[in-house]
Amino acid sequence: MKIAVAKEIEICERRVALIPETVAKLVKQGLEVFVEAGAGEKAFFSDADYETAGAKIISDSAQLWSEADILLKVSPPQTREDGRAEIELLKPESVLISFLNPLGNPVIAQQLANRQITALSMELIPRSTRAQSMDALSSQASLAGYKAVLIAAAALPKYFPMLTTAAGTIAPAKVFIMGAGVAGLQAIATARRLGAVVEAFDIRPAVKEEVQSLGAKFVEVKLEEETVAAGGYAKEISEDSKKRTQELVASHVKNADIVITTAQVPGRQAPRLVTEEMVAQMKPGSVIVDLAAEQGGNCGCTEAGKDIIWNGVTIIGPINLPSSMPVHASQLYAKNVTSLMQLLIKDKALEINFGDDIVDAACVTHGGEIRNQRVKEALQAVAV
Ligand code: NAD
């Protein structure tokens, strides 16, 4: 059975789906691994490193895609420079494992179903204890939370820690983190390590203890509705609750030197947490890093992929932050996809077992059908 690692063609994607260390483990299991020439270059893994690990390097991209039994990628498939869609290159009944964004771009699921591809979407791995080693959303969100703080610190015209010097005392920076999921918690930990005073807010009350255990203050809002959906994710809240949370967070935004927003609701546009009016109240020189920029932004002033200065406040809307740390991002992602593959391979052959809840949840297309109800609904909404 051939496992293939494609070279990413998305312009700002520096990650690679397998690193040499994980290739070596698969080869040891008796599996054949093929790596597209240059696939690991942007993450500092050379073709020679992969060859040493036991992979075969393939220069012809079309050949790699068309011969793969399992094709591994990071970003969703795209159209290549020669005009051919990558999905069209896949062998019918082969397996594709990648981030696919099937709720945001359900058309991709239709295209995969049309090609009879068994596609597993890394976004659809359940957030269960057993699936933890496969949870690429978490591994990558953690990198994003860490990097967001470093970006904010570099843009802030101030120190982070409190300093007592002969020339006077410097007050510590005040950091306000909105959304205390995986990225938010890592952002709290990183800002604390740099010496900032940190506050955090989330509509899920369950995160209060985690926030406090990291040394941050939890900003609590009591809402009269359920804020947690199945799987522990946040729900979209009512207009009234949105108004109440905005009123509560306004004073914390105003007093912060840095605001880092990470709030998301799966399959929906990111909730608007920081309005233009709130930004107008912030001190000049303050910084906002909006990790939800690609999902429409938590801040009303954010422009995805841009750093803008609005009323003296720097607003940064980074895209694909994990890709800016490609060595560790690829290392963690490689572990995630390799763990998932172990559920699909029995005696060196493919065995798709929908009795396994992880395979069942992550598999978005199989046998010409879209298997996920939410993706089907998203596709219908696009078609209307
Ligand atoms: P996410 O990226 O979907 O959202 C980030 C955070 O934004 C969440 O904490 C969410 O509650 C918050 N948020 C959403 N709307 C908001 C609003 N209007 N105001 C303020 N905050 C808002 O979340 P995630 O980091 O992917 O984690 C989602 C859930 O999955 C969490 O409960 C997490 O604990 C859980 N999880 C479980 C596992 C596991 O058990 N293996 C692994 C990872 C995450």
Question: Your description of this structure?
Answer:
The chain has 384 residues and is α/β, with parallel strands linked by helices. Helix content is 34%, strand content 18%. The chain contains 13 helices and 19 strands. Strands 3-2-1-4-5-6-18-19 form an 8-stranded mixed β-sheet, sandwiched between helices. Helix 6 runs parallel beside helix 7. It starts with a strand and ends with a helix. 48% of the residues are buried. The model has no long low-confidence stretch (mean pLDDT 95). Nicotinamide-adenine-dinucleotide (NAD) is lined by residues 127-129, 132, 135, 137-138, 141, 178-184, 201-204, 232-234, 237, 245, 262-266, 271, 273.
Q: Flag low-confidence runs.
A: none
- Spatial separation of the terminal alpha carbons: 41 Å
Large-scale geometry:
globular
How confident overall, as mean pLDDT? Answer: 95
Q: Helix/strand/pairing class, anyone?
A: alpha/beta
Radius of gyration: 22 Å
How much helicity do the residues have?
Answer: 25-40%
Q: What's the total number of strands?
A: 19
Bound chemical compounds: nicotinamide-adenine-dinucleotide
Give the spatial strand order of the biggest sheet: 3-2-1-4-5-6-18-19
Work out the helix count: 13
Tell me what portion of residues adopts beta-strand conformation.
15-25%
Please sum up the structure shown.
Keywords: NAD, NADP, Nucleotide-binding, Oxidoreductase, Translocase. By secondary structure, this protein is α/β, with parallel strands linked by helices. It has helices at 20-28, 47-52, 61-67, 86-89, 107-114, 136-155, 182-193, 208-213, 239-255, 276-281, 326-342, 357-362, 373-383; strands at residues 2-5, 32-36, 56-58, 70-72, 95-98, 118-121, 163-165, 168-170, 174-178, 197-201, 217-219, 258-261, 287-290, 307-310, 313-316, 345-346, 349-350, 363-366, 369-370.
